[in-house]
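Review box. Two proteins, two foldings.
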Amino acid sequence: MEVYHMKVEIITLIIRLAIAVMTGICIPAFRTWLKAKTENEKYEQIRQTAETAVYAAEQLLKKTDPDGEERRKYAHRLISTTANRLGVALTDGEIDSMIQAAVKELNFYTHQEVADAQTVDNH
């Protein structure tokens, strides 16, 4: 009977050790994954703000801002505000890059819509 109890205690200790090791491995890995996911969500939200800001600036300021400087400032301010609210530090260069990417996307879709409209008109 005593051998049986020793085996049970050994098995219990092995299980506890395995749980401790798994906890030590899994919890830090989960924290790392969660932090990365949260950061990705923040950057995605900032990217979406950049697109929205560029589209809004185009609609609101295009006629009164032929060189685009006021539109750039408008978009920069909105992106910077969103990043600060989310606790993300962005340089002016990073914000300008986001604005340029959103402008390129806007121009691509604008030209694509014009081309599509011309195709429909020609048929």
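Next protein.
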Amino acid sequence: MKVIMVIIICFGANCEAIWEKNYYSSIEECVTASAPAKTYMMDTYPDSAGEIHCMGKKEFDEFYNFLQNGGKPTLSSEELNKIG
């Protein structure tokens, strides 16, 4: 299975999505790799909010197409409740 780590980071209401170019072989491998990424992002951008998602290739392709068609990444409502 091809899995991609996607990071959504928001500064105020402006959110961006970034992702790695390499694939993980499983969701578990991606989740494990996300821990240091989370720590780095929180230390580097303490005034931001964000989420890390591990997406299968099909889910990522749909997300990428959403962005290419003008869609904007957003945080889940659970994360928004923490900051709002």
